[in-house]
Every structure is written in C-alpha cells, then in structure tokens.
Design goal:
mainly alpha
C-alpha cells in the first residue's frame, strides 16, 4: 500500500519490535502479568494507607526490607521498591522504548502542532488523522508524551475536539442530503421526527457554547467553520418539505375516493396535521423557510381547513 500523504507531519514510523512472548502492547491491550501482580497490589494498598496517615497493614521487618530491595526503612525503602518495580515492569519498559523509538517523530509532531493554523476544515481533518497515525502506535499516549517537555497537549486535544465536531456535523449533512423519501408518509414522519429531535438537541447544546468554543479554537489557530450548522438547518427544512409533499400526495389520492376509503382518508388527514406540526418545529429551529417549504405549508394548511 502506498504511504499516505500528510500535511506537514511525518509518516508514522514502523511499529517497535515485539516484547517478551512476542505480544505488542497498546492502549487497548493488556499490559501482561503486571495487572495480576499481588506484590504490586499489596504495595499499592500499603502506600495508600501510609499517604492517608494510616498504619501499614504489613509490618516491615528486616526480612521484608530485604525482599523489597531496600536497605533503608519506612518511606524510603518503599519508594525505592516502587521505583524498582516500575523500572522492571514490562509496561514501563515499553514506555521507555516508545520514547526512544518514536522520539524523533514525536518531536516533529510537537513542532507541527505548535505551528498548525487553518481555516480549512478539510485540512483540519487531514491533520488530525495524520496526528493520530503517529500517536496510535504508542503504548500509553499520556505517559509517553509526558516525557517530552512542553508538548502542546491542550492544543492537541482542541484539534481533536474541533475535528470530531466537524466530522459529526458533516455526517449529519451527508445523511440529510441522502434522506430517502418514500411511502408510507406515516413512517417517514416518525423516522424524520426522531432524527430531527436528536440533532436539534445536539445543535442546541453546541449553540449554547459556540462563542466560548470559537474563542478556544481561535486561541489554538483554528478558525472553525460554523456555517456547517446553517447548512444542516437548510437541509432540515428541505427534508421536512419532502415530508409535507408526500403527506399531501397521499391525502389527495384518497380525498375523492369512495366511502370505503373514508377510514384511510381520515388517517391521511391526520397525517397532514402531523406533517404541518413537524414543519413548524423545523421552521422554528432553522429560523426560517425557503420558497418551497412556504408553498407546501400553505397548501397543506388549506387542505386541512377546506376539508373541515
């Protein structure tokens, strides 16, 4: 597979060689026997008790001191033991190996993040993807990055947040553009009403913090394109118009039918009202209508009034 292009970021280096029994450590994988170590568990419990001002549950005898690897007593011996265990731990060995093996690419990433600025959301997404390609090979991202003084963690997280917000918004746009409008109108109304309510809750929450988020993004060199929310509202109006259109179509098909269709006619008339209510909710959310939506809303209201 050809290596992918990046926007000022180095391509991720090959994964480091396997450790121990040939297993590669990652954030999603186990860290080996360390999790099941009774020694580490006991030491942790004793250390916590000591820091909280409680007496140690295990009496430190001369023999115990020797087992823990310290010639001194009390806190010093315990601290030395913990350091020794950490030094020998496969997990912490892997952290040190990550620092050594990926140090160059992390330093390059540090410089790239510090200098990154953009108004282009496509560039933002690409940068974030290249950034993740470098970081995903690390055993524990936070542990490794902590070894590099001044690494811009806050800006890195801001880039992630902004990219995730735009990706989510873009997926909503895509879904609305490809919304399938088909009979029966009753099912269409239920499906779109549910989705509209879900998206409205999310966008309302974003609107409440938009100014604060915008300032935070700008502080970190990102001029976020909030116009994508305008696009979402316009598409919501468009889909709600299609719902009204289908409800009107089904109504007119049964409007002049024989008496045996009266039950269906009543159902379709009720759908007109439901479609109008949904269109009004969308209108209130979007802050306006387009010409098509206005005309359909008037037609729909006239049908309801004239039949009454």
């Amino acid at each position: 597979m050809a290596p992918r292009k990046s926007v000022g970021l180095p391509l991720p280096p090959p994964k480091p060689p396997a450790i121990g029994a040939g297993k590669m450590f990652s954030r999603k994988q186990s860290i080996g026997k360390l999790k099941k170590s009774t020694i580490m568990s006991n030491l942790f419990r004793d250390l916590r008790a000591m820091l909280e001002g409680s007496r140690l549950h295990v009496k430190v005898t001369g023999r115990t001191k020797k087992q823990l690897g310290g010639s001194g007593g009390g806190k010093e011996g315990l601290a030395a033991s913990l350091q020794e265990l950490a030094r020998r731990s496969p997990f912490f060995k892997q952290i040190e190996e990550d620092v050594e093996n990926h140090g160059k690419s992390i330093l390059e990433l540090k410089a790239a993040i510090n200098s990154f600025e953009t108004k282009d959301m496509t560039e933002l997404i690409k940068f974030q993807q290249d950034m993740e390609a470098i970081l995903e090979v690390l055993t524990d991202e936070s542990q490794v990055l902590a070894k590099f003084e001044g690494f811009p963690v806050k800006k890195m997280e801001t880039i992630r947040t902004a990219a995730a917000l735009f990706s989510k918004s873009n997926s909503i746009v895509s879904k609305l553009k490809n919304w399938e409008v088909k009979s029966p109108a009753a099912q269409l109304l239920i499906k779109f009403d549910r989705y509209f309510t879900e998206v409205k809750v999310e966008l309302d929450a974003i609107e409440r913090i938009k100014d604060e988020e915008s300032r935070n993004y700008r502080r970190h060199g990102i001029d976020f394109d909030f116009n994508i929310f305008v696009t979402i509202k316009e598409l919501m109006v468009d889909v709600s118009s299609s719902c009204m259109e289908l409800a009107l179509k089904e109504w007119r098909e049964t409007k002049g039918a024989a008496c045996k269709a009266d039950a269906q006619k009543k159902v379709n008339k009720n759908l007109l009202w439901r479609a109008f209510q949904l269109a009004f909710r969308v209108y209130s959310f979007a802050g306006g209508n387009d010409d098509r939506s206005d005309k359909l809303a008037k037609d729909l209201a006239n049908e309801i009034l004239s039949d009454s």
